[in-house]
C-alpha cells in the first residue's frame, strides 16, 4: 500500500503526491479497522474505498479558503465519496494523520539512505582490501607520527559506516511511530484497536502513549542520527582534502575531463566535492539542532514544531542522500600517488621510528626517562640538519653502547607493522 515512491529520487518521498496517498491510506485503514470491529458495515467501507480519491489542485484551492491542509484534504476526499464521506476522519485529529504519515515517510526515506550506506560500505571494503598493505605516514596534530597503511584508513571508515548503518536502523525503528488516539491522546472517540490496525498495515509501531502528537524526542533522535552520519562523511572529506594539499598530494578526488578548477588559475585541481560534503554536513547538523528545539511544546501540543519539520525532514534526508552519493563517487574514483606517498614516508628521515628506538633501549635495561632523553637528543639533530636518524644513532656512542649496527638496522624495518594490519582486519571481518 505504501511502496509508491521511486528509490532513485528520495525527494519523491516528500512530494505532495506521496504525502496525500499516505494520508488517504491512513483514512481508509481507519475505516477498514472500524469495519473489522463491526462498528460500520463492510459494504460501507467497500463503497468508500471504491470512491475515495483526491485532486491536489482542488485541495490547494480549498486550503486557500480554510487555511488548514488536512481539512482541505478530507473535504476534497469526502466530496468524491458522497454521503458516506462523513465517515472520513471520524474521531480523528489532524496529527493522527500527519504524525502517522511522517512515520511512514521516515521509513521510506531510511530505506533509500540505508541502501546508499550499504553501497558506500562496499566501496570502503574494496578500498581497504586493495590498499591493505600500502604503507603511508600517520599524522597526529598534523605532524608525522608513525607508519600506518591506507588500508587501515579505509578500514576505519568502513567501521564508521557499519556503526552508522546500525544507528540508522535503530533510530528509524524508534521514529517510525504513528498514533490514532484523538485530540489529546485519550482514544475518547476511537477504539485503540483502530490505531493498532492502521499502524500494523503501514508497517510502523503505534506510540505507547501520545498527546495530540507523537513526542518529538523520537524525531530528534532520528535527525541527530542523520547528523552523525553526515559528520562521518565530513571526517572522510576533510582527510581527503588534507591529503590533496599540494605539499602532501598523496591522493586526489576525481577531476573529470573538461573540468576546470579556477577561473583565474588553469593549473588548479581543487577538492570541491569534499568541500561541498563538508559544507552540507554543517547544514544537516543545524537541522538536527532545530529538531531538539521541537521537543519542548505547550501542554498536549502546540504548532511551533510543524513549520520546522516541513523543512528539516525533506531537506536533511535529501541532503544526506546527496552527500553519501558524492562521497561514494569520490572514493570509488580516488586517485593515488604512490611515489608521493613513499616520499612523505621518508620525509622526516627516519624520525618516525623514534618510539622503536626508545623501546629497544628500554629492553636493554635503561629507564624510560633515560632512553627518552637519548633518543630525543638525536631526533632534534635530525630536525635541525639534513642528516637522518639512523646515521645519528650509529654515530652516538651513548646509543651504540646498548645497540649495535645490526640492531639499529632492524629498528628501521617496517615489516612487523603489516602483521598487525592482518589482526585489525580480522576483527572487522575484512578478509
What keywords describe this structure?
single chain, about 425 residues, mainly alpha, Fumarase C, Chain B, domain 1, Fumarase C, Chain A, domain 2, Ribonucleotide Reductase Protein R1, domain 1, 3 domains, two-stranded antiparallel ribbon, two-stranded parallel ribbon, 17 helices, elongated
Brief summary:
With 431 residues, the chain is mainly α. The protein is built from 17 helices and six strands.
Any overview of this molecule?
- The protein is mainly alpha-helical and 431 residues long.
- The protein folds into 3 domains: 10-90, Fumarase C, Chain B, domain 1; 105-176 and 212-256 and 266-344, Fumarase C, Chain A, domain 2, CATH 1.20.200; 351-411, Fumarase/aspartase (C-terminal domain) (Ribonucleotide Reductase Protein R1, domain 1, Orthogonal Bundle).
- It is built from 17 helices and 6 strands.
- The strands form 3 sheets. Strands 1-2 form a two-stranded antiparallel sheet.
- Helix 6 runs parallel beside helix 17 (415-428) and helix 8 packs antiparallel against helix 9.
- The chain starts with 15 loop residues before the first helix and ends with a helix.
- The model is unreliable at 1-7 (pLDDT under 50).
